[in-house]
Amino acid sequence: MPKVEIYTWSRCPFCIRAKGLLTKKGVEFTEYCIDGDEAARDAMSVRANGRRSVPQIFIGDRHIGGCDDLHALESAGELDPLLQ
């Protein structure tokens, strides 16, 4: 299984929803909670092609995007193949 990483804010409802989907699927992930840490947000933005919103999700070397992007992959049946 490829490494899954997610940048979050602790009280962000979209972050909680994205983590919930990953947890429901039994996916282990590394969470980077960047509440108020502008240096960490800048580093995330570089990895995320300039996107500064949270969550930002990565599977392996692939930038997935945010919560809606993750759920769209799940709805299309494209998430499971990325996780294998």
UniProtKB/TrEMBL annotation:
The highest taxon in the source lineage is Bacteria
Report any one BP term from Gene Ontology: cell redox homeostasis
Q: Which of UniProt's keywords are assigned here?
A: Cytoplasm, Disulfide bond, Electron transport, Redox-active center, Transport
One Pfam family recorded for the sequence? Glutaredoxin
Indicate yes or no for the key word Signal. no
Electron transport among keywords? yes
Cellular component annotations (GO), alphabetically ordered: cytoplasm
GO MF, one annotated term: glutathione disulfide oxidoreductase activity
UniProt cross-references to InterPro entries, sorted A to Z:
GLR_AS, Glutaredoxin, Glutaredoxin_subgr, GRX_bact, Thioredoxin-like_sf
The UniProt function text for this chain reads: Has a glutathione-disulfide oxidoreductase activity in the presence of NADPH and glutathione reductase. Reduces low molecular weight disulfides and proteins.
The record's family statement is: Belongs to the glutaredoxin family.
**Name assigned to this protein:** Glutaredoxin
Source species, please?
Planktothricoides raciborskii GIHE-MW2
